[in-house]
Design a protein that fits this description.
The structure holds 2 protein chains of 2 kinds. By secondary structure, chain A is an alpha/beta fold. Chain A folds into 2 domains: 167 residues, Thiamin diphosphate (ThDP)-binding fold, Pyr/PP domains (Rossmann fold); 127 residues, Rossmann fold. In chain A, 41% of the residues lie in helices and 21% in strands. Chain A contains 13 helices and 14 strands. In chain A, the strands form 3 sheets. A 7-stranded mixed beta sheet of chain A has the order 3-2-4-5-7-6-12, sandwiched between helices. The two termini of chain A are 28 Å apart. By secondary structure, chain B is α/β, with parallel strands linked by helices. Classes of the chains: A alpha/beta, B alpha/beta.
């Protein structure tokens, strides 16, 4: 973690790498994809474990229910596709085939958010976290970098129950290092501060760190938290941050409805009301462009977080 | 179990269906009655299963994809010994494990949560795939409705099951020709159903779904067919066994009144 970003692997690459590692350790792990394995990176698993990989073709609904059947026989299926198709096209299959019987299925949606860039709105998942969080019993993970992705994917495989993991297309700035302590359900404080807390996940963690660096020059001491686990959310750290810093800004590459901001606000309003601000997509789809252009237009840069911090500070 | 015993058991299940749905004044008797004979053969003749050990890894599985026929499944499970028969009359009641549509984890013997149509064939396909991975010799059966076959996911699963050569998978289509809004042919024509499944690469068998000899023979043939999954297109009668319910769309999702129940039970003998 630093004010100047250092790029590492894309989180989807880290997923593919870890899936292979897990496959070597545990023969119960199988993988499915819907004709996007080269993009989601499950192709790495497919190459090494030909008889434990199932390409289901462009048929996501069937893939999810098939994964449920596999899980009911003791397999640990990882089903991947683009986050938009995996969550939006199969919501009822997730609901009844997977969530209702609480089966041990892992869903990995790559190309989360608008940072996929040029492909445009049809391929951008901006509602996947809201959908995943609404499924009873699901764990919902949005890792920020390669190290946290690998740690969280490993723990997802060890957890008995459904998990949704969002990965991203572009190279992700490095936040952690090999061996960093990252646990499902426990948020990480990536920068200490006392005036205000920014709670972010995914690519927004680096944006938040850079926002904190700018604020520091302006005399505002910002705590930055990586809330990689949106569900179950780390209530303790939210309450503690609200109490000690007195204001909270959330930042996510997702619609403002139903994602990280909503989840944090629910905790804050119930346990420790303080002024809050929200950075995310405001009731709109994005469009084609470079990730940088899109982050600027749709309000997801460090600069937008700084503005939100300053606005929230006035309400303290 | 011989055919006389199967006939008796099916009659008992039909009586249960009528009593259970009337008791709670809701449910789907028509499609339960049409499914009864096939379900009877599966649980009391064809399937390798052990009610004392419901999670036995080598058991044959049955997925009721048309989950609204739950009363037929529940009765078969109870008479097999998965749970006490007395529980049947708690169907759809608060606190009962006999949910309106089957839910895995709530009731022993239920292999999937169904009721949202279209998903059961995919789930069964995943179970069959797991059997192939592990070289197990269990067989997976699934029953889908004719109306349910309008769901796109059925055809996704038809494709993938054939592609993965799941000859350990047998699907029954309970072709009773009636869905909630009316005759299937008037809502959304399915014909030519046999050609469709053949085109998707399945072994297709057509039978009278109320003829025990044909049902048994179809299962034997399905298990013998190698390299492809089998679909049994079973022509059935909605409401089978109760004259005033037969081919009567009203009894798709409506229970008999107390008076009608008495008449139905008398007919069933």
């Amino acid at each position: 973690m630093s004010c100047k970003r250092v790029y590492g692997m894309a989180t989807r690459d880290a997923y593919g790498k870890m899936l292979v590692e897990l496959g070597r350790e545990n023969p119960a792990i199988v993988a499915l994809d819907a004709d996007l394995s080269k993009s989601t990176k499950s192709v790495l698993f497919a190459k090494e474990f030909k008889d434990r990989f199932f390409n289901m073709g462009i048929a996501e609904a069937n893939m999810v229910s098939t994964a449920a059947g596999l899980a009911s026989c003791g397999k640990i299926p990882f089903a991947s596709s683009f986050a938009s198709f995996l969550m939006c096209k199969t919501f009822d299959q997730l609901r009844m085939s997977v969530a209702n019987p609480h089966l041990n299925v892992k869903l990995v949606g790559s190309h989360g958010g608008i940072s996929i860039g040029e492909d445009g709105a049809s391929q951008m998942a901006i509602e996947d976290i809201a959908l995943a969080c609404s499924l009873p019993g699901f764990i919902v993970l949005v890792p920020a970098d390669e190290f946290s992705t690998m740690a969280l994917v490993r723990q997802a495989a060890e957890h008995a129950g459904p998990v949704y993991i969002r990965t991203g297309r572009p190279k992700a700035p490095v936040i952690y290092q090999q061996g960093s302590d990252i646990k499902i359900g426990t948020a990480n404080i990536v920068r200490e501060g006392i005036d205000v807390t920014v709670i972010a996940n995914g690519l927004m963690v680096q944006e938040a760190v850079e926002a904190a660096c700018v604020c520091s020059e302006r005399g505002i001491d910002v705590r930055v938290i990586d809330m990689h686990t949106v569900k179950p959310i780390d209530i303790n750290i939210i309450v503690q941050s609200a109490q000690t810093t007195g204001a909270i800004v959330t930042a996510e590459e997702h619609l403002l409805s139903g994602g990280l901001g909503s989840a944090v606000a629910q905790v804050v309003s119930e346990h420790c009301p303080v002024p809050m601000g929200f950075v995310g997509l405001n009731d709109t789809y994005a469009e084609s462009g470079t990730p940088d252009e899109l982050f600027r237009k749709y309000g997801l840069t460090a600069e937008h977080i700084v503005r939100k911090i300053e606005e929230v500070m006035k309400r303290k | 179990m011989d055919i006389d015993k199967l006939t008796e058991t099916a009659k008992t299940i039909r009586r249960d269906i009528i009593k259970m749905t009337t008791e709670v004044n809701s449910g789907h008797p028509g499609g339960s009655l049409s499914a009864t004979d096939i379900i009877t053969v599966l649980y009391f003749k064809a399937m390798r299963h052990d009610p004392q050990n419901p999670s036995w890894p080598d058991r044959d599985r049955f997925i009721l994809s048309k989950g609204h026929a739950a009363p037929a499944l529940y009765s078969a499970l109870a008479h097999s010994g998965y749970f006490p028969k007395e529980q049947l009359l708690t169907l759809r009641k608060f606190g009962s494990p006999l949910q309106g549509h089957p839910e895995m984890g709530k009731l022993q013997g239920v292999e999937a949560s169904t009721g949202s149509l279209g998903q059961g064939l995919s789930i069964a396909s995943g179970i069959a795939l797991a059997g192939k991975i592990d070289n197990k010799d269990y067989h997976t059966y699934v029953m889908i409705g004719d109306g349910e076959s309008e769901e796109g996911q059925i055809w996704e699963a038809a494709m993938s099951s054939a592609y993965y050569r799941l000859d350990n998978l047998t699907a029954f289509i309970d072709y009773n020709s009636i869905q909630l809004d009316g005759w299937v042919k008037d809502v959304m024509e399915l014909e030519p159903i046999v050609d469709k499944w053949k085109g998707f690469g399945w072994h297709v068998i057509e039978i009278d779904g109320h003829n025990f000899t044909q049902i048994i023979k179809a299962i034997d043939e399905a298990k013998a067919a190698k390299g492809k999954p089998t679909v049994v297109v079973a022509r059935t009668i909605k409401g089978k066994g109760v004259s005033f319910m037969e081919n009567n769309v009203e009894f798709h999702g409506m229970a008999a009144t107390r008076e009608q129940m008495e008449a139905a039970l008398k007919e069933l003998g």
